[in-house]
């Protein structure tokens, strides 16, 4: 990526206060050529975090869960999704 493009993207993410800090961090890591996802994420994600990471609606996430594509776990009645499951799901979708 050209240096000027990198500078523009960095300036845009810094200037936009509506940018999610995590997404800005991911963008910065991508620009540096580093691994963007997985290492910053917690081991377990909430339903909201899972939807944000995959860019899905809650309804689509529930549908994927019903189909067995993503298996939620319950901890004291609270639903969570494993980070490793999300990564495997995305890699599986990309390879088909």
Provide a concise account of the structure shown:
The chain is mostly helical. Helices cover 57% and strands 10% of the residues.
What is the number of E strands? Answer: 3
Give helix % range. Answer: 55-70%
The succession of helices and strands, N to C, reads HHEHHEEH
Oligomer: single chain
Query: Could you report the average pLDDT, rounded to the nearest whole number?
Result: 79
The domain tally reads: 2
Distance between the termini: 28 Å
Largest sheet entry: 3 strands, antiparallel
Radius of gyration: 16 Å
Q: What fraction of the residues are assigned to beta strands by DSSP?
A: 5-15%
What form results from the Cα inertia axes? elongated
What structural class is derived from the secondary structure elements? mainly alpha
Spans where pLDDT lies below 50 across 5 or more residues: none
Strand order of the largest sheet: 1-3-2
Note the total helix count.
5
Question: Which features characterize this protein?
Answer:
96 residues, mainly alpha, 3-stranded antiparallel beta sheet, 3 strands
Task: Kindly describe this structure.
The chain is mostly helical. The protein has two domains: 38 residues, no CATH class; 52 residues. α1 packs antiparallel against α2. The chain is elongated and about 45 Å long.
């Amino acid at each position: 990526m050209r240096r000027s493009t990198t500078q523009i993207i960095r300036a845009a993410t810094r200037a936009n206060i509506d940018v999610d800090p995590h997404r800005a961090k991911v963008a910065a890591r991508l620009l540096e050529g580093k691994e963007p996802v997985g290492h910053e994420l917690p081991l377990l994600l909430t339903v909201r975090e899972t939807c944000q990471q995959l860019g899905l609606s809650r309804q689509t996430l529930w549908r994927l869960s019903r189909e067995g594509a993503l298996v939620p776990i319950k901890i004291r009645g609270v639903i969570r999704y494993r980070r490793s499951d999300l990564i495997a799901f995305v890699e599986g979708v990309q390879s088909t």
